[in-house]
Every structure is written in C-alpha cells, then in structure tokens.
Design goal:
Pfam families: Aconitase. By secondary structure, the protein is α/β, with parallel strands linked by helices. The chain contains 14 helices and 21 strands. It has 2 domains: about 210 residues, Aconitase, domain 3 (2-Layer Sandwich); about 130 residues, Aconitase, domain 3. The strands form 7 sheets. A 5-stranded parallel β-sheet has the order 6-5-4-7-8, with helices on both faces. It has a 4-stranded parallel β-sheet with strand order 12-11-10-13. Helix 7 links the parallel strand 10 and strand 11.
Amino acid sequence: MAATIVPAHAAFFGAKKEIGARASFSPSISAHRCRKHALNKVLAVMAPTQPSRAPSTTGSVKHGMTMTEKILAKSSDRSKLEPGENIWVNIDVLMTHDVCGPGTIGIFKKEFGKDAKVWDREKIVIIPDHYIFTSDERANRNVDIIRDFALEQNIKYFYDIKDLSNFKVNPDYKGVCHVALAQEGHCRPGEVLLGTDSHTCNAGAFGQFATGIGNTDAGFVMGTGKLLLKVPPTMRFVLDGEMPHYLLAKDLILQIIGEITVAGATYKSMEFVGSTVERLNMEERMTLCNMVVEAGGKNGVVPPDETTFKYLEGKTSLNYEPVYSDESAKFISEYRFDVSKLEPVVAKPHSPDNRALARECKDVKIDRVYIGSCTGGKTEDFMAAAKVFLASGKKVKVPTFLVPATQKVCVSTTNRNFPGRMGHKEGQIYLASPYTAAASALTGYVPRPTRVPVKGKWSYSLSYFIFCIVSLEDVDY
C-alpha cells in the first residue's frame, strides 16, 4: 500500500491498481526469506473526507499559519511567520541528560563563566537515564557531573538516582527522559521544549514544539533562555478510519516512514491529524511523534484536545495556551491514509524506512526480542504485549528482554535498526509494534495476522491475530 504525494489539496491513499498510486514498496525482501506479495492484494480506498476545523488564533497571531508556525510566532513575539525565516525563540523548557549534559555544562561554563548562573533554574530539566546501570567509572562520571551541577545551580527538576540496588529509595528517579518529561508535566500545549536528544520530538504529542539540539546550542540556551531557529515548513498526515485492534501507533509511523523515506521530512514539521489520531491515547500519540526524527523531521505535532488536557490534569500547575492550524494554513504536502485498511508492518534491517508487511516476513527466524526504549517502553506498550502473552496461553520460545541486545537477529520496539545500534554491528534488527514483538517472542518467527473475510472484505481482529500467533495457519470462515 502506498500513499501518493501530490499537491496538499489533493493527496490520497489508495490501491495502485485502482487509482494509479505509485508503488514505493521497492526494497528487495528476498533476504532472510521474506516472502514478497503483490501490493494489489491489500485493498485500500480513499480515506473519509476530514471534517473541517474552525480556524484558531492565539494572542496577536492573526495570519493563517500551521501549529508549528503559531507556536514559534508566539514564542518569538511575532504576529506572522513564514517557513525558512530565522527567528530568536524564547524557550520554555530545556532538557538534558547524562549523555550530553556534561558537554552542555562545559560549554555553558566556558562561554558564560565558571560562576555563571543558568537563565532559569525552574525551566531546566536534568535526567540521568542512559548510563545509570553501567559499572564503568567513566560513564558514572557523567552522572556525577550533572548531579554536581544540579546542586550548584539549585535546579528544581533534577530526577536523580542514588541507589541502584533498591529503586524504592529513589523517589526522584523517573526513568527514560522523554517519558519522564510527559509524566512530570513538562510537556504543555503551545510551548517550546528543546532537549539534547534527537527523540525530544516525542513531546510534540502534546501540541508542543519539541526538537533535539546539540550541546553548543543547549549551552547557549542554558545561559540565555533563547535560541535562533529556522521556521520549518509543515507536512500534514491525515489518518482517518477505525483503527483495527491488531494495530498500534508503531505500525502507523512505520507505514509513514516507509512511504516518505528516512529523508522525506528533513527539517520539516510533521503534523498528525484525523479521526484515528483523535482516538489515540497520549502514549500512542507519543509513539507517532517520537519517530518523526527517523524521517528527518524537525518536529512532530498532534493538535491538543480533551485527551491531552485530561492527561495533564494534576501533572502541571502552569497555565498553557493550545494552538491549532488555521484552515488557511499552507502545508508543503499532505498524505491521507485509511487506517482501517492497514496491516501490521515491520522495518527490516538496516533502516526504519525498509518497510514490509509482517506477514511477508513470517519465515524470518528470530533469536531475541526486545520490548522497550523511549518509543516502545511505555506502560501501554507493555500492556499491549501482555495482552498477546496472556491470550496465547503459551510461553515465549526465544529469550525476551527489556534491555538492549544482541549479536543476532532481534525483533525490537525501539526506534532505530542501524548496524550496531543494539549491540553487534552485524545484528539484524526488525522494528515492530509491541503486538508484533510479543507475537514473535511466542513463536520465534515474525508473525502474521489471520485473514478473515467479512462481508466480502478482508478483516482482522485481535482474537484471530492471537490465534495466528500460536498456529501460524490461516483460518477462513
């Protein structure tokens, strides 16, 4: 299935045979015995027309703009912005962790003075989350540096860990930085959040402009609270239709990245809208936005709604002002998908855009399964995996880990499958949703859902998906 990119007002998603959509499913799938199927076996039709949304303005912003343009305009005290403009932006939150924190701190002290104070101790969030489990003294030194700095600067939001042997005595420790930012109320609609990690774009799920920056930029922000940014153009992705029970947001973003490639959104904003997106919970929206960087995106964003506001209840006491794209906003391109017609997908080695249907890789034998990371390690991800495990009534057939591995083939819910990303440089990593990863753990192979014809159409259900996980046989009624 392929979505055709055409001028923003006319983009559609459909079967190649019926409407002439170009096929972007070109990578060879002969390796690892993945079976190739003709694309026209999977039917796709034009997605339902998206209901019109009333234009919205924020403060003095009256010019028709996208969400990203509006947030940046508000944060730069501008009434109007165009893509490509360079602007000074006032930053609401700066996040750094134990990987890039020491470098950021070093630049801050070099440029502003060894006794300099940060611009705002309540707008900097520091989270040790990468090196905390290693016994390497040099890696531990990174945590020591950010801990000393947090104490020196009286940083309000430093989520420290002091006793690795007993997590119950670490009430301040919050875990993976991107999930912690959300759970602790640092992700607020209409604001600008920068972080020294490429997956900071995760926070765009809250209608926030969030992107990763380098140590030099972070050091400057730490001292001034400002940064010079270029306004990105916006690509819009309209996801409509009822989402099948066997799909998760990971399938959606892998479908999109496979469509536009890992360079398809380079320095662009990716805006996700449509009835499907509106029904996603916050954790699933975070999965969508987390992986925009795998397509080269500057940021991803989802319009905030009641789901967003309810999630933030009790998490923040700060006022925030959500913004929305105007009807007259200009998008560089638009893609439309009928989600009800999609199947579980995987990204084969060695790129997130090497997309294949899960059923096309059912003969790929796996050695390890990993469920975790900032993309696939949220509560909902583990709940999804648990559903598969419990419904099957079976034990896993391959080692299943919640830690990075391995030297061999690994089905993973993380975000990248580059050589060496999860261990050995020759490891073959297949990216998949928690459902698919859990199913793979039970069988030792990449699974396929069972196809069941309903009223002349192919349909799927989680129960049949579970049955297929155990039997690996098609069941027709």
